[in-house]
Amino acid sequence: MKRLAKIIILVCILCLPVWAEAQDTLRLAHEEFVSIVKNYHPLAYRYRLQNRIAQREVQQARGQFDPLVDGAHGAKTLDGLDYYRETQLELNIPTWYGIEVTGKYNTINGQRLNNNETEGGLYQFGVTIPLAQNLLYDKRRAMLDQAKFARQMTEAEQELLTNELLLRADNAYWAWVKAYEYYQLQSRTVEVNRERLQLIRKTFEYGETAAIDTTEALSQLQGFELQMEDAYLQWVKATQELSLYLWTENQQPYNLPVNVVPTQDLRMSPAYTQFALLINEVNTRPLQQHAAMQFIFQEQNILKSELKLNRQQLLPQLNFTYHLLNKESQRSKYFPLFEDNYQYGLKLGIPIFLRQERARYRITQTRLLQNKLEAGVKQQELNTRIKVYASEVQNYSTQIELAGKNISNFRRLLQAEEARFQNGESSLFLINTRENKLLEAEQKLLELRLKFLVSYNQLKWLNENF
After folding, report:
1. Whose CB among 62, 147, 183, 352 lies 3.0–4.6 Å from 235's, allowing a Cys bridge?
2. What is the pLDDT of residue 4?
3. What are phi and psi of 349, to 5 degrees?
4. What is the pLDDT of residue 14?
5. Which three-class secondary structure state does DSSP give residue 449?
6. What is the three-class DSSP state of 158?
7. Is 424 left (phi over 0), alpha (psi -120 to 50) or beta?
8. Residue 96: which H helix or E strand, with range?
9. pLDDT at residue 331, as a whole number
10. DSSP per residue over 33-62, as a string?
């Protein structure tokens, strides 16, 4: 019961209750519906979570530069002989340019030490410098750069996915509105024909019309009743499809009751007054700023980072290490650096044929070329979509205006035919013909309005991706 009460409260808040045709009728506004989808739909929430993951991956990549404290202690005793007792502490600080700074303290004592061991406490302060490979760029820097690019890439992708979800939801809302208006249109037509049938029956009783007229009026009414039942079925189906986008705050599905109706009709959308401004805005925006292009560009940056790293792998591995040494409780002389109390090393390594390195470099070059080709195709695709949607919106706007004038003409013809019928100059057949034409024109106008709004939504949500 508590859960049901929460759902009822949520519907009352989000669906804008309005006392309209009946006391149990609730109305759902377009803005509120889009807000519900944006805030509560599981996919929209999932996309936001994906952005959080990308941010954490950047943090993880930064961890490659965290200082590392290491410690160890060990001893060996055999047959009453202390071979060694050793304690070692070390601090390793990696830097951005591939240089590692280290500080060590080591103390060792025993009766069987190796010749290269220094008995007692020893302090060491050193640095390791790459002289060829990893000097200009290394794996740590590449991982951090690529994590940053991947985060921007993820943000662009999630923006595209979120707006695609909102586009489908937006279209579903207006399809729901159209289904409701179509049902209302059929219901009004049925009511008019019921009144007409009653009138024909009365005139038949007075001997003013033939019996066949009542049959024709009944047949016309039954045909419209069939259409009304079909329209009601479409309305129910559209309601169920709209419910796919309605979720509660804790991501639980919510089935929209049939007594919930739209707040506005297809004519009340601001699209009719804003489409010209929207077309101008989309046409003046650089396509490079679109999220789809940004996704490709960030992928391109990742490939450039990988190519830069692969280029470093073609160089020989040449590392220089130098440590200043100082025995515990003893003053030492540090300068000149290579005169006393020091330790250094030089390490060189390079594969003879470099086949793996050269292959990775060429593969990355090829992928980068593929990415640039994809960018050109996507830019042309976006440009074409903008032109197509803009043309559709403008054309449907013109068709709607013509369809409205056509309906006015059909309505005047119907009214004139009814007046002639009352004067005995026409027939019920002609009235039914005029009425059918008017109904077809009104249905056509509803379809045109929905097509206009769908095309407008395509352009609107494409614009939201910039």
Report:
1. 183
2. 31
3. -155, 135
4. 38
5. helix
6. helix
7. left
8. none
9. 62
10. HHHHHHHH-HHHHHHHHHHHHHHHHHHHHH
Tokens of 417: 């035919």
**Element (DSSP H or E) covering residue 312:** helix 291-313
Nearest Cα to 118, choosing from 97, 103, 104? 104
Those residues of the chain that have pLDDT short of 50 are 1-23
Contact 123, 343 (CB under 8 A): no
Amino acid at site 34: V
In 162-252, DSSP assigns E strands to none
Instruction: Give the separation between CA 21 and CA 62, rounded to whole angstroms.
Output: 62
- Quick check: helix, strand or coil at residue 23? coil
Name the nearest CA neighbour of 452 among 67, 175, 148, 41.
175
Pairing of strands 68-78, 317-327: unpaired
Place of tokens 């939504």: 457
Q: Whole-model pTM?
A: 0.82
Q: Count CA atoms within 13 Å of residue 369 on its CB side.
A: 6
| Encoded amino acid at 312, one letter | Q
Which residues have CB under 8 Å from 216's CB, separation 6+? 428, 429, 432
CA 222: distance to chain centroid?
48
3-state helix, strand, coil in the chain (%, to 5): 65, 15, 20
Sign of CA dihedral 96, 98, 99, 100: positive
* Core vs surface per residue 173-202: b (16+ CB within 10 A) or e: bbbbbbbbbbbbbbeebbeebeebbeebbe
**311 and 354 in contact (C-beta within 8 Å)?**
no
What residue type is assigned to position 230 of the chain?
D
What one-letter code names the amino acid at 246?
Answer: L
Where do the DSSP E strands lie in 63-169?
A: 68-78, 81-94, 100-109, 120-130
Task: Please name every residue paired with 28 in a beta bridge, in sequence order, or none if there are none.
Answer: 262
